[in-house]
Design goal:
3-stranded parallel β-sheet; alpha/beta; binds glutamine; 5-stranded mixed β-sheet
Length: about 260
């Protein structure tokens, strides 16, 4: 029951923040050297990297890293929690200046985005109902699995779909995707391992990991901050400089520990 309450709070929170952002979004034109405000897109529900707390304030590793880097480098930004796929589109269309969303650095994405230095190693996994009878990828034959639009874990699922004989249904948000499995509509979902492991460890979902790619897989790549290719070079340089500074002075480790400690 408390799980449902916190999930509702997350969804309500993103609405509140969106209003707050709309109210203070009048003067931003991109760029920061001239005192303007960068628009940084992020995911809606991707704990512990970004999520709304009970007050509707966005928190998480990405959110705190961005805040620390902006403070170190002296730039201003407006956070736009759009959802992962919407954030990809917003940066590509120039509506947002950059994105931080547990975004995997891939060669394919490097064709359309410029990435910062990597800041967190990740892999992708498959999860199913904790109490159910799906124990491995072999059990997915003839079944429907849930994937998140535009993500690496979706790419992994599609790459093994024919081999294991499942069909996929797409979702834009991680929490809605988990609910589809919990409701029994899909038998499993595909997700980034740190996110799925955190949701399981915090008791938010009654799921278990059933498979994970090897750490040297092409689907296991670190997270980076991204801008549209060839645009916002100044923002990207500031992000990299600030990232190096917060890794050096211990702030980065403090941020990671904060979110592990509250798990
Ligand atoms: N790391 C994954 C990707 O980049 C998922 C990111 C997300 O869902 N926020 O595709």
């Amino acid at each position: 029951m408390s799980n449902n309450i916190s999930r509702r709070a997350f969804l309500g929170g993103s609405g509140i923040l969106a209003l707050a952002l709309a109210a203070c979004g009048g003067s931003s034109d991109g760029g920061s050297a001239d005192g303007a405000v960068y628009k940084i897109a992020t995911d809606t529900v991707f704990a512990p990297f970004e999520y709304a707390d009970v007050d509707g304030t966005y928190v998480g590793i990405d959110i705190d890293i961005l805040a620390a880097i902006a403070a170190d480098q002296g730039f201003e930004y407006e956070l736009e929690p759009l959802g992962f796929n919407a954030a990809l589109q917003a940066v590509q269309s120039g509506q947002s200046d950059g994105m931080i969303a547990g975004m995997s650095i891939t060669d394919e994405r490097k064709e359309i985005f410029d990435f910062s230095d990597p800041y967190y190693d990740s892999t992708v996994c498959c999860a199913a109902l904790a109490s159910g009878d799906i124990a491995s990828l072999d059990d997915l034959a003839g079944k429907t699995v849930a994937v998140k639009t535009g993500t690496m874990s979706e790419s992994w699922a599609l790459s093994i779909q024919d081999q294991y004989g499942f069909t996929t249904v797409q979702f834009d948000d991680s929490d809605v995707m988990y609910q589809d499995v919990i409701a029994g509509n899909s038998v499993a979902c595909f997700e980034d391992t740190p996110i799925m492991a955190y949701a399981i460890a915090t008791g938010n979902v009654d799921l278990k990991l059933v498979a994970e790619v090897e750490s040297d897989s092409e689907y296991a790549t670190p997270y980076g901050f991204a801008v549209k290719k060839g645009e916002n070079a100044e923002l990207l340089a500031a992000f990299n400089a600030g990232l190096a500074a917060i890794m050096e002075d211990g702030t980065y480790n403090e941020i990671l520990e904060k979110y592990v400690a509250t798990a």
